[in-house]
Records
---
Amino acid sequence: MTNSKILIVEDERAIREMIAFHLSRAGYDTLEAEDCREARQLLADERPELALIDWMLPDMSGLELTRLLKRDKEFEDLAVIMLTARADEHDKVTGLEGGADDYVTKPFSPRELLARIKAVLRRSGSVEGEIVTSGDIELDAAAHRVSVKGREVHLGPTEYRLLKFLMTHAGRVYSRNQLLDRVWGANVYVEERTVDVHVRRLRKALTAHSAEHYIQTVRGAGYRFSLLDA
Ligand code: CA
């Protein structure tokens, strides 16, 4: 198995090198860019699977770079985690709407960053055949069955689809509107609060198995499935 390749886009050399050090030690191949121009060159030449993009960069903001990449068919499989000193909810939402898969606020610990990276990389590779496993939850897509530590969880069809979508996109935050599009379908008219109702039911079903903590509310942004504590 080849190592995942990660591009670090950060103009502050000390931070960039610190991140590169910890990523290499965790077994990733790293690439470093100090501005967007260099980043785009490396993305085209080296094809990393994930880019860590700092918000504040000298030639273009990291948010603009993320938007550009997410609009480009060539990079549709690239995962993006934004790094930022901004802790505002508003900026968090803007970053996620710009297409970032996750968001890490400075200062962060290497451990936290590695956990986020793992979660984002996992979401593309988590489906093995028809069985999706994440934490204690196992979802059998062929049999439409969900179990926690071997005990079956009884879910309604919508809760099942919601859980399947969130599990196969673990780590990423989805707004109510995005969930309506992806789980209910773009042409179905339902109110956003319908999502809250089904999330509540899903959590209730998982509570009986002490697994409700995987379904997390991200204030002002939406919901996500995560193995990490909220
Ligand atoms: Ca910076």
Note: Residues 10-12, 54, 56-57 surround calcium ion (CB under 6 Å).
---
Amino acid sequence: MAGEPQPDCLFCKIVSGEIPATIVRETETTVAFRDINPQAPTHVLVIPRLHHADAASLAAAEPAVAADVLREAGNVAADEKITETGYRIVLNTGAGAGQTVFHAHAHVLGGRGMQWPPG
Ligand code: 5GP
Ligand code: ZN
């Protein structure tokens, strides 16, 4: 059921501690940890503790938690001192857009220049 921990979900296992991660921030509703395959000097994932498949599903079901994820993305950027230079929040949605883990997550990328449009 949406919102409940999913036994086969990698990010639910990071929330529970079953799989280790380099956690940089935690709140009552979110966890932020370093991406295992960083694409920029700062590459942190911010996830809700609740399981929802993607960011839009999370926002539809739990709008306050979706806001928490975005606020935490900004807090990560401040901690990493990339607020001034700029950073990108990425919400890949669907396999065709590069989503590989179907537990909502925001990528926070920064510390280098960013191209537009994205690939
Ligand atoms: P997506 O492709 O779904 O937008 O992002 C999933 C992200 O999760 C990828 O950037 C990938 O590197 C990261 N990732 C996959 N497995 C692990 C893991 O076990 N630990 C951490 N910290 N990141 C992971
Ligand atoms: Zn999950």
Note: The chain has a mean pLDDT of 97.
